[in-house]
Every structure is written in structure tokens, then in C-alpha cells.
Amino acid sequence: MSSTKSGTAASSSAPAATGRETLTIIDNRNGRQYEVPIKHDTIRAIDLRQMKVHESDFGMMSYDPAFTNTASCISKITFIDGDKGILRYRGYSIEELAEKSTYLETAYLILHGELPNEAQLKEWTYHVTHHTFIHESIKKFLDGFHYDAHPMGMLISTVAALSTFYPDAKDIFNPESRRKQTYRLLGKMPTLAAFAYRHSLGMPFIYPDNDLSYCGNFLNMLFRTTELQYHPNPTLERALDVLFILHADHEQNCSSTAMRGVGSSHVDPYSATAAATAALYGPLHGGANEQVLRMLVEIGSVNNVAAYIKRVKAGEKLLMGFGHRVYKNYDPRAKIVKRIAYEVFDVLGRNPLIDIALECERIALEDDYFVSRRLYPNVDFYTGLIYQAMGFPMTMFPVLFAIPRTSGWIAQWQEMLLDSEQKIARPRQIYLGHDLRSYIPPDRRG
Ligand code: ACO
């Protein structure tokens, strides 16, 4: 990097290309010219710091609330092209994985970078399956919750509580320890979620069944009643598995950023996962699937859609399940979810709310408000309809997002830990508050 002094103003006509992978910046406050390296179409924010008017200045920073144009890491996990509607895990298209893979195989891919061979998949499945039991004391935490406690609150609390049962998880730079916590987190998240659900119903907890698949066992723990062995409906089991594939990772979203940020303090992965789960809970993120259903219920009839859209355009409401920070095209996951919805309805009967959803989509995709803002259905728009048809209460919808996203969170966390450029996350601020002032005793304050 070089810094040169130049008194000349920037020319308005386009200068000739130099072929250099650098960006020249002229600071018009003092005429200084800087040349900073460009790599991957990106400059390093720290290279701005040398730009000062006075030697005592702190130096230039970039201001980017909500990180709309700031890369916080280099990643090899998930690729998204938001304009083209492309999503890939480790180079494999989401469409192909949804068609040919299983959730556990995809989780392996996301975490290890490559698809497993047969022996690796067998071993991986064995270990995840044999880490599904939770300590009996966790049940006491669940018993402490009110019957109508939101299951996301219960999940956040109990996954955080896991850190107290596994102090070895603090050994985060030990690959063996990380492997063990990965099995535990993937294995136990469905159990915690199912137990939270059963608690809300006042029904006895159902223990994991190792003869079932990842999703088959989850359905067993949720829905088994008096049968000696639970046999999941294969269409529903596969539908849930595909939904889990679609939700496994989504690069630097709000909850992955929470996972990386909290994990950057070198806390154990259970505490970081609790933070990521909390981030996912919000209605603008994973909580949106619950809000979509509430919205469809509120709209109530296809005839009311136009009036509702009018309120959205007036800024009174959000069309939940629409819009995305990255996708400015149809979310590729939403297309697959829409197809699965019909497969599930073939087994369980049509969810009547689908007609309201379709009408919302039809109007929105033709309306200039949505077209000009490039707002399309996101993954959450149709998932709730499937979950409701499968018998889940709305409060469980974000939980059904958190379970599969755990593989992505762990992969992001591990990548962050092993990246020698990463440090504890600590953004800067622009302070615009008071300058130094003197304390005034209460009786002398106006
Ligand atoms: N309904 C109505 N208007 C919307 C919506 C929506 N769902 N989403 C965005 N807009 C409007 C905004 O009001 C804004 O309009 P303006 O330019 O007139 O001010 C414009 O579109 C751009 O929106 P931003 O909020 O700036 O976009 P941002 O990238 O910050 O937000 C977000 C993305 C949070 C997903 C937003 O689209 C939203 O709130 N959607 C509804 C909630 C939702 O579905 N969240 C799930 C996202 S997917 C996931 O997390 C798994």
C-alpha cells in the first residue's frame, strides 16, 4: 500500500485503465492521494485508517449500519447470488441437494466441505444418532416453564444450559472436542425441541428411537402417543428432511453473524448456539414463518387480500415472508417449498390458507410497489402452511428452522475459529454524543 501527496483534483473524464488491482482515493480535504489494494472486488476497511487530515486524527473509517456492504469474513461454505436466485452449499446447488441428498448428508457436506463416502456417512449418522439423549436434569428446566411458554424461549434456554453439562466444550481449539460437540448439538437440538413441544401440551416426553431417521425420530418424539413403535409417514418424513436441507445454512445472515460474533469471544459452542437461536427468533429473521401464518389468518379470505396489500403499501404492515436482504429475485428455496406444500397436502389435505398466500403472491408480483423494490417470496412464505398441515402449532415454526440451521451455525463458527485473520468481533462507532461535561448534583438540575 502506498500513500502519495497530490495537489491535483480528480479528472472528470474516465482515466485509462492501469491494469493494477488497486483503488486510488483522493482525500479532497487535503489533496492526498492513496492507492489501496483490491482483492476479490473488495478493499480492506483498515486501509482507510491511514487517511488523516492531522497526524493526531484517528483516521478514516467506513460507516455501514446493518453491514449492507461489508464482508466480515472469507467463507467457503455457502454461495448466494441474490440477483440470479442461486443458493449453493459447498458448490452444490440447493435444487440438486433437495432432490438427491438427505439432511444429515447435507449437514456433513456443510461441516466437512465434501460429501461423505458410504462409510463416512454411516459413521456420521451413527454418531449423531447416538447423541440424541439429553441429561435427565434438562427435563427439570423444561418443567419450570409455564405451559404456554414459547418453545423458542425454551430452546434458547435449554441449549444454553447444555454448556453446563459439557464443560469439555470449552476446549474449542481441540478438533476432537469440536467434533464431539457437533454430534451433541445436531443430535440434541431435535430432542430439546420435541421436549419443549410435549411440555406445552402437558404430554410425557418421548425418548429418541435410534431405529428411525433423523427426521423420523424427530416426528416420533413429537407425535407418538400410545403406539409401541412410531412409523412416520414416508412422504411427511421426506418433506421435513427436504425442508431441513433448505434451512441448513444461508451464509452471513443475522443468526450466523450472532454465532460468529458471540463465538469470537471463545465461548463454548452451546452458548454461541443459544445466541444464534435467539437471533433467529426475531420476526424479521426465522420468526417470520410464524408471522406469515398469523398474517394469513388475519387476512382471513382471498377477498381481503387486496385490502391488506393496500395497507402494506401504505406502510402500515409488512407483507411477512416477502423481501430479503440478499435475494432480489425469487428465493430458490421458496420455489422448492411451494412444491413440497402440494406433496404434503396430497397426504394431509389442502391447507385452505394456501389460497390466500397464492393471492398475496399473485398481486404482489404484479404490483409496482413490490416489483420496484424487488420483493419476492422468501423461504418463510410457504413453510408455515406445510408445518400447520403437519399439525405443528405456529409457535413451533421458528424451532423447525433452528434445528437444521444448527449445522450451518457450527460450520460458520468453526470456520471463524480456524481463520487466522479473525479476532474478537468488535465494531467501531461514530460517537456523536456529548463532549466532556461536569456532574451536577440532583438538587441543582433543572
Ligand atoms: N413488506 C412490505 N415492504 C417491504 C417488505 C415487506 N415484507 N420488505 C421490504 N419492504 C420495503 C421496505 O419498506 C423498503 O421500502 P422503502 O424503500 O420505501 O423504504 C424496501 O422494501 C427495502 O426494504 P429494507 O427493509 O430496506 O430491506 P432489508 O434488506 O433491510 O430487509 C427484510 C430485509 C428484513 C427481510 C425485509 O424484507 C422484511 O422485513 N421482510 C419481512 C420479514 C421476513 O419475511 N423476514 C424473513 C427473511 S428470510 C429469513 O430471515 C430466513
Strand and helix layout:
Layout: E1 2-5, E2 22-27, E3 32-37, E4 78-81, E5 86-89, E6 92-93, H1 94-100, H2 103-112, H3 118-129, H4 136-143, H5 151-165, H6 175-201, H7 214-223, H8 234-246, H9 254-263, H10 269-281, H11 288-299, H12 305-313, H13 332-348, H14 353-366, H15 368-373, H16 380-389, H17 397-417
Antiparallel strand pairs: 1-3, 2-3, 4-5, 5-6
Helix pairs in contact: 1-8, 2-8, 2-17, 3-6, 5-6, 5-10, 6-7, 6-17, 7-8, 8-13, 9-10, 9-17, 10-17, 11-16, 13-16
The structure holds acetyl coenzyme *A.
Acetyl coenzyme *A binds at residues 284-286, 288, 312, 318-325, 373, 375, 378-380.
Q: What key phrases describe this protein's structure?
A:
2 domains; 446 residues; single chain; globular; Citrate Synthase, domain 1; binds acetyl coenzyme *A; mainly alpha; three-stranded antiparallel beta sheet
Detailed description of the structure:
The chain has 446 residues and is mostly helical. The chain has two domains: 22-63, no CATH class; 96-419, Citrate Synthase, domain 1 (Orthogonal Bundle). It is built from 17 helices and six strands. The chain has helices at residues 94-100, 103-112, 118-129, 136-143, 151-165, 175-201, 214-223, 234-246, 254-263, 269-281, 288-299, 305-313, 332-348, 353-366, 368-373, 380-389, 397-417, and strands at 2-5, 22-27, 32-37, 78-81, 86-89, 92-93. A three-stranded antiparallel beta sheet has the order 1-3-2, with no helix packed on it. Strands 4-5-6 form a three-stranded antiparallel beta sheet. Helix 5 packs antiparallel against helix 6 (175-201) and helix 9 (254-263) runs antiparallel to helix 10. The longest helix has 27 residues, at 175-201. Acetyl coenzyme *A is lined by residues 284-286, 288, 312, 318-325, 373, 375, 378-380.
